Structure formats: C-alpha cells, structure tokens
Batch of 4 targets.
Target 1
Amino acid sequence: MGTAAEAQAARASAPATLCTYRDAFPPAGGTNIGGAPNRYRHTGSPYVGARFDGCTNTLKLYYGGFSSPRYAYYDIRYTYPSQLGWFSWQMQMGPNRVGTLRAPAHGDWNFKVRACARTIDGPGPGTCTAWSPQLFLHAV
C-alpha cells in the first residue's frame, strides 16, 4: 500500500481531463452581436446564444435584449436529442437572461426565442416580436 503522499503525487502527475466547449451557430444566418458565446439576433428580435460545457455536461442558453414593460415573457422554442418536434418554455423577461440545462445535454439541439405580450383578457398568446435566428448546437 502506498502512502498518502504517494497517492497525492500520482494524482498530481495524472493528465488533466480535457474539457470541450461547443457554441451554437445560426445555419441560416443572423447578426452576430458578440459575447461569449456569440449571440445572434434579427432586426426586432431578442438575441440568443448557447454553449455546451463538456466538463459539467450542461448547456447554457443566453437570451434577452428586451426590458420593455410591453412584453411579459420570452417564448423559447427548442428541439432536443431523440425527440421529434419543437418544445416550448416561457421564461421571465429581462435584458440579459441565462437558462441552464443539466445532464444529459449531449446531442443535437436547436433554439429560437421571441418576446411576447399577454392579451388583455387572459394568459393566452398575445403579440410577439420576430423570432431570433434559429441556432444549432451539436453537444458532444
């Protein structure tokens, strides 16, 4: 059996695990407004960006750009691995928002976002901005 000092030395000499980071991109184009990861928008739409972190197996979605009281929520549409069709989240308004998807995050993802207002007579759909560019992310 080795000593605690030998075990510590073995851990210190072991190669560090390489982490991978992958950023989403808009296959059909959009205006890159910068950031880390890059965020993309169309005229009149919120911005959206996404990054996969292989070390933590998480995917972070960055969205925002609207803080007007006219809008009540962000409508986020997404596809995710091994599922057909688009799914939807309604997320809180604000100029700079981040949503985190925890494991398992591996696979192909698509995202787009818009800001929406509620109708006067209820919580149903209301008036929305244009959609952001659709982003694609291959998370491996």
Note: Helices lie at 4-13.
Target 2
Amino acid sequence: MTERQMQIGEVAERTGLSLRTIRHYEEVGLVAPSARSKGGFRLYTEADVERLMVIRRMKPLDFSLEEMRDLLEITDKIAATDDPPAGEEKERLRERLDSYRKVADARCETLRAQLMAAEDFAATLRRRMDAGK
C-alpha cells in the first residue's frame, strides 16, 4: 500500500501556512515535496506535513532560516534509520540539539513575559474603560 500524497493546497490548509510560504520553504531547502504528479504538481506525505509543522513552530521563536535548516539537519541525522550516527558524532549532534533546546526554552520564557505584560496592559485598558462608564 502506498502512502497517501497530498497536493500543496491541502497541505496549506492542514498546516495553516500559505502556498507561497510552503514554496518559499522549498526554495530555501527546509522542505521538499516527496514527489511530483505527472502534471508537475507538488505531492506531500504526512511526514512532509509534520516537517512543515516543526518549521511553523520554530517561526514564533525567531529562529533564522539557517538555524531552522541546521536544526532540521540535526534531527534528520539523529532519526536516520539507514545510517544512524554513532559514538562521537551522535554525542555531538545531541549536544547541538540540546543547545537549540536551551535557546527555545529561553525564547519561550521571553514570550511568556511579553504576554504577561500585554495581558496586564489590556486589563489596564479594561479598567479605565469601566471607570469611565
């Protein structure tokens, strides 16, 4: 049984990304369609959708395209089943992955602080609106 393939429109709908964004991610080497139809349409698998969702989740954390590419390369190598890394290479990859995790954790904390400040501001505005009634 072959894996189900989706055209870019369905992938865009499922991921919440625009067609243009998906094409851009392909152009910069972050994702590639698993196949092309006879008519040349991009065809994506569930694994491609999952990869796009990982990219989408990196975006709010301000990872650059280069960092995204590096991080995806690291996770691809760690998950490789045909030639998995071993020994020093595996340890080096895990250390690099952990450094990205630490950056992501720190950026999440910054976003939490920004959200708290924004919510406090919105509450201040509500109080002022209520006081003016």
Note: The mean pLDDT is 93.
Target 3
Amino acid sequence: MEFVFYAVPALIMTGAVLMAVTVIRRSLDVRRAWNSGLTAEARCLRSYTTIGGGGGDTSVSTTLHHVYEFMTRDGRTIRFEEPNGPATVVEGDIVTVHYTADRPEKATAHAPRRGVLVAGTVFVLAFCSVVILFCVGFMVGFHAFSSEWNSVRTGGDEFAGAGLPF
C-alpha cells in the first residue's frame, strides 16, 4: 500500500511537467507569430465558452474560445481556435491575426504584449516548480518516515520519529 504514497505525487508531478511543456510551447508559438511580421485579416466564425472546475467548495472557471479563419499571403485558407480571447469579439467580427509562414495554424489573434506573455509564462512555470518540489519533498519525507518505521517493526533501534505530530 506504500506505493500509493509514491504513485500519487509522481502522477501530480507528471501533470505539472506536462502543463509546463504546454505553456512553453504555446508561448513560443505566440512569440514566433508576433515576431514573423506576417498579419492577415481573420473573421471570427464562432465563439463559445467552456466551463471547468466546480463541485463542492471549488470555484468554477470559464474560458472563452474563438474560432477564426483567414487567408495566408500564398492563398491558403487557415482555420484555428484560440482560447482566452476578448469577450468583445463576436461571430462575424474581423480581427488582425499574426502567423508564421511555415506554421500558419499556430496563429494568434492576441495583440503583441510581450511583457504579459513572459510574466504569464514565468508565473505558470514557477507554480509548476513549486508543485514538483512539494511532491519531491513529500516523497522524500515519506521515505524517511517509512524507513524509520520499518526498522522499528523489524527489531531495529528505538523509533526516533520523523518529527510528525502523531
């Protein structure tokens, strides 16, 4: 049953690492689109919200998504979806999108705000790092406690304790 005390933190750490990788990739995609200098007029085809969280005492979060379509300079029609867009953009609106020539499907309709992008990315990475460090600390602490406890059960030295209140 002890494996649960290692498996659950490992699963949480895996989720934190995946979140960090996703945020870094999206941040790099947006930065490349802004730096490419390529823009196009895009039409908002659809906007919708998704609801996450909730239940019990947890808060509910909503995310506004937009689906855009635009034509690249070489005549290709590109459709992409982007979360966290402005609530003022509705179906049929025309917005400026930034894209790269080699990957136009990674376009963004967000206006260039490099400081906000960096700050958001750093915040999420710091949060993920704290989660990972907490999980590693928990696993190390549990290992030390269970090793000490097992030595007492098998006739080792007197239990010195691991600083736990029980």
Note: The helical segments are 4-36, 114-153.
Target 4
Amino acid sequence: MRADLGASWMLTRMASECHMSLRTFVRRFTEATGSPPGEWLIAERVEQAKRLLVERRHSIDEIAAAVGMGSADTLRHHFRRRSGVSPQSYRDQFSAPQPAKVLDQ
C-alpha cells in the first residue's frame, strides 16, 4: 500500500491481495501494526503529504491527489487532526525558504 498511496485501497481489496478473509485480514493487520487498516492508511498518507509539502513543488490540491486523499479539504481535515496544524502551516514551518524573486526594472 505504501508504494501506491494514491490508489483506492478498499478493505476488500486489501484482504484479497493478502489472500485472507476480510475479518482475518483486519484482525491480523491490527495485531501487526497496532492500528486498523483505514487508520494506518490515513497516517501513511499524511506522512507522505508532509514529505511532499516540504519539497514545495506541488500545490495542496496536487498533494491531496497524489496521496489518495481525493481533495484538498480532505487532506486538510486529516492533516490537522494528526499533526495539529494545517498543511500550509506545516509547509511554512518545515520547508526551506524560497529564494526571493528579483523584479525586472
């Protein structure tokens, strides 16, 4: 799942790819990671969004799509819930300053 966070990861797909029943997959996944699959996936998507935000190459909308959040609003919701700040505040705090643009005179 980490290799393709932007994909649609439904529980049935996860279980199928692991050749397990849904119930067994959820139980074993939770035992192995300490989190249910959906919560783990959101946490991974937020962590990837943090890495992309620091790079400063993509807009919030592009990052949301790349990590599978669907929309900037969804990314903002989950990002703030897990990190306590908005994606833009995180970017401002942790990315290298952008060089000043020189205006032509």
Note: The helical segments are 11-17, 22-33, 37-55, 60-66, 72-83, 87-94.
